[in-house]
């Protein structure tokens, strides 16, 4: 009975029909500034993007907010240092860099997993040999 008011869990991850994953909203008050509304995402992606954007020397400001826990989107605000490098270009560059970092992390994890399996197998084989003697 206490969970009657809870929204369905799928609502936080399934993109409704007709809703775009990403919306670009230019900021008219600040130069070279825009907000991006990213639907059905949370702190995980938003914080990684913010951190990646702040590594870019051409990005002056990058921050995000989650308007409300029951609203399933984040708002990422980006301001660049010069007009030749737009916030959209900065976001695209950050996405590519983040994707590359994830691929490196996947490769390193796979290698370490193989190393761990080999060491474990060698340890088990050595243990079995000790029992036989």
From TrEMBL:
Coiled coil residues, start to end: 88-115
UniProt xrefs under CDD domains: RNAP_II_RPB11
Chain ranges of the DNA-directed RNA polymerase RBP11-like dimerisation domain: 33-107
Domain of life (superkingdom): Eukaryota
Pfam families found in the cross-reference section: RNA_pol_L_2
Signal sequence residues: none
Keyword field: Coiled coil, DNA-directed RNA polymerase, Nucleus, Transcription
Record GO biological process: transcription by RNA polymerase II
PANTHER family xref list: DNA-DIRECTED RNA POLYMERASE I,II,III, DNA-DIRECTED RNA POLYMERASE II SUBUNIT RPB11
Family: Belongs to the archaeal Rpo11/eukaryotic RPB11/RPC19 RNA polymerase subunit family.
Entry protein name: RNA polymerase II subunit
């Amino acid at each position: 009975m206490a969970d009657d008011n809870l929204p369905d869990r799928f609502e936080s991850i399934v993109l409704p029909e007709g809703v775009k994953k990403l919306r670009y909203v230019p900021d008219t008050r600040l130069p070279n500034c825009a907000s991006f509304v990213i639907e059905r995402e949370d702190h995980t992606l938003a914080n990684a993007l913010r951190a990646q954007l702040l590594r870019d020397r051409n990005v002056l400001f990058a921050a995000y907010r989650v308007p409300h826990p029951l609203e399933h989107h984040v708002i990422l605000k980006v301001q660049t240092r010069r007009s030749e490098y737009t916030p959209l270009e900065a976001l695209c560059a950050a996405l590519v860099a983040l994707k590359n970092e994830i691929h490196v992390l996947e490769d390193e994890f796979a290698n370490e997993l193989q190393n761990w399996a080999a060491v474990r197998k060698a340890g088990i084989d050595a243990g079995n040999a000790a029992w036989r003697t």
